[in-house]
Each structure stands twice: as structure tokens, then as C-alpha cells.
Design a protein that fits this description.
alpha+beta, Phosphorylase Kinase, domain 1, Aminoglycoside 3'-phosphotransferase, Chain: A, domain 2, 5-stranded antiparallel beta sheet, two-stranded antiparallel sheet, 9 helices, elongated
């Protein structure tokens, strides 16, 4: 059940009889909608996103948007109101790197925006109760589920355990939590973060890793962009790029492990299936390619892909 057209128009200060067109943004019946109120092209026409407040992710998204607004963060949609069991937020124009080649200057802007988010002194969203040690599982990666043989899993065990400790020592705080390319809208020289359902406490370099991997960026360029993020945060550039590369390996392996369940959940939603498959192919290719200099990342890659070419080949 979503807010009716009359109530939506009234909430936005428009006449009750305003014409409303709706377009689903996902293949799910309870997914967010784009609502166009008025005649497209007219000065008074409004574009908004209508999101049903059903489930933890939708509720967390709205709570985080409210907190970001209070903090003066301008790189996220504005929450316009809540009515009829729905959140109404402004529509943000842009494309994701899953859809098109990134516009000029947009990747740099994305790094700046993610860095600005991470600089916020904000305690909102999920996972704050787990503490830093609870952010990464202690149990061994079930690499057999990704097809790695015993002779590959064995040498990877020790550097993966050490990688966990190295990552737990990296910067932690408020983060997007699932900063894949489809959650970062790009435009020439600018970027906007648009989905905060997983926002909360975490290891912030995972946001950097998730975006750079799923945006399909080559390794050298990923390293440059990670150093730009480091500069925006006041962190050591080379060390941060190396840790971001290590985070990409850890995050990418985890994403590939949970991918089958997400593919089943997206059945019937062709757009979601496309996004998942595109991201998965980019992750699988990207984690093979070194985008920084970190001894543990080198050791993990040497164990899991012993015969691969260093240019990313199999």
C-alpha cells in the first residue's frame, strides 16, 4: 500500500487534482517509485521518489537521510516528508557506473563525496553495537564454495587471517555500508549517494573498495582514486591505497560468496539481476588485479591465483 496521488500532491503543496505519473524503480511490488507530479517540462513539475517504509533497510535509509540532513551533508537526496507509510525524497538526476561510462570528473567527485561522508561525526544506522572486532568474521573463508582447490586455500589461510587484523586497524566510523556503483549517481564533476539502507558503523575502506570494484575501473586508476580519497581524509596516500586494495580482496571474496543468494532473491527483477551480474563480473576480474602495494594482498593473490598473469589474466 503506497500513498495515494491526492495525498502525495497535498503533502508537496500542490493542488489535489495535480496529475501524477508513477514509474517503478525496481521490479519489486513494494520497491521505490519515481512519481512525476504535473506536466513534464513545466516549471511547477516535481519529481520525487516514493519509498514504502517496509523492512529494516527502508527504515534505516530514512533514519540516515534525516541524520545526514541535520549534519548538513548535501551529497544525498533530501527527505521531503513521511506520509501514508511512505517516505518522500527528492529525485536526483544522474547515472551510475553500472549503466554508462562515468562522466568526466565524476569518479574524483565520488571519492570526495565518500570521504566527506566518512568525515562526519555521525552515530546513526546499523552495527554500532558490534564493536570493531565484530565487523569481520573470525571464521575461515569458505573458499571451496568459490571453486578454490586445497592447494590454493592452504597458502591463502595465513595471509587472510593477517589481513583481517590489518583491516580491523583501518579507519572505522559511519559509512554507506554498501557503496556499490549503483548507489552512487554520477554527473560531470559531481556525485550523489542515494541508498542508505545499510548505512551505519563499519570499516570505511570497504566503501572505497566496493565502489571502485563495481564501477569497473582498471587497477592503476583504482589506486589513483584511493590515494585521492586518502588525501581528502588526511591519510597517508600509499599506505591507504594498499589497505584499500586489501579491503577490495576481502570485500570482493565475501560478495562473490553471497552472490547466489542475492541472485535468487532478485528473480523476476531483470534490472536487479543485470546489476548483480555486472557487478559480479567486475568484482571477479578486479580482485585479481593489484591496485596498491600491500604484502598481504600480494600473498593472497599468489595463493589463490598462482598461475595468473599480473595484468589480470587467468
Amino acid at each position: 500500500m503506497t500513498i495515494d496521488d491526492r495525498s502525495l500532491a497535498s503533502m508537496l503543496g500542490l493542488a489535489a487534482g495535480t496529475h501524477v505519473e508513477r514509474e517503478p524503480l525496481t521490479g519489486r511490488a513494494d520497491g521505490p517509485e519515481l512519481a512525476i507530479l504535473g506536466t513534464p517540462g513545466d516549471a511547477g513539475c516535481k519529481h520525487v521518489v516514493v519509498r514504502q517504509l517496509a523492512g529494516e533497510a527502508a527504515e534505516n535509509h530514512v533514519a540516515v537521510l534525516e541524520a545526514l540532513s541535520r549534519a548538513g551533508f548535501t551529497h544525498a537526496p533530501r527527505l521531503l516528508g513521511i506520509a501514508g507509510g511512505c517516505a518522500i525524497e527528492e529525485w536526483v538526476a544522474g547515472v551510475s557506473a553500472l549503466s554508462l561510462a562515468p562522466p568526466a570528473g565524476s569518479l574524483e567527485a565520488a571519492m570526495d563525496v565518500i570521504a566527506a561522508l566518512h568525515r562526519l561525526d555521525l552515530r546513526e544506522g546499523l552495527r554500532w553495537e558490534v564493536g570493531i572486532a565484530g565487523l569481520l568474521p573470525e571464521e575461515e573463508f569458505p573458499l571451496h564454495r568459490l571453486g578454490f582447490a586445497a592447494h590454493e586455500r592452504g597458502p591463502a589461510r595465513e595471509p587472510l587471517a593477517a589481513a583481517r587484523e590489518a583491516l580491523l586497524s583501518s579507519t572505522a566510523g559511519f559509512m554507506l555500508g554498501a557503496a556499490t556503483a549503483d548507489r552512487v549517481l554520477l554527473r560531470p564533476g559531481g556525485a550523489t549517494l542515494v541508498s542508505f539502507g545499510a548505512g551505519g558503523f563499519g570499516l570505511q575502506l570497504f566503501d572505497v573498495a566496493a565502489f571502485l570494484l563495481t564501477a569497473g575501473i582498471e587497477a592503476d586508476r583504482r589506486g589513483e582514486l584511493a590515494m585521492r580519497y586518502a588525501s581528502a581524509r588526511g591519510l597517508p596516500a600509499e599506505e591507504t591505497a594498499g589497505l584499500a586494495d586489501l579491503a577490495a580482496l576481502w570485500w570482493g571474496l565475501h560478495e562473490l560468496l553471497v552472490l547466489p543468494r542475492r541472485q535468487v532473491m532478485s528473480l523476476g527483477d531483470e534490472n536487479a539481476t543485470y546489476r548483480l551480474n555486472t557487478a559480479a563480473s567486475r568484482i571477479e576480474r578486479g580482485i585479481r588485479q593489484a591496485a596498491g602495494s600491500h604484502a598481504l594482498a600480494d600473498a593472497i593473490r599468489a595463493a589463490l591465483w598462482p598461475s595468473r598473469n599480473r595484468d589480470g589474466g587467468g
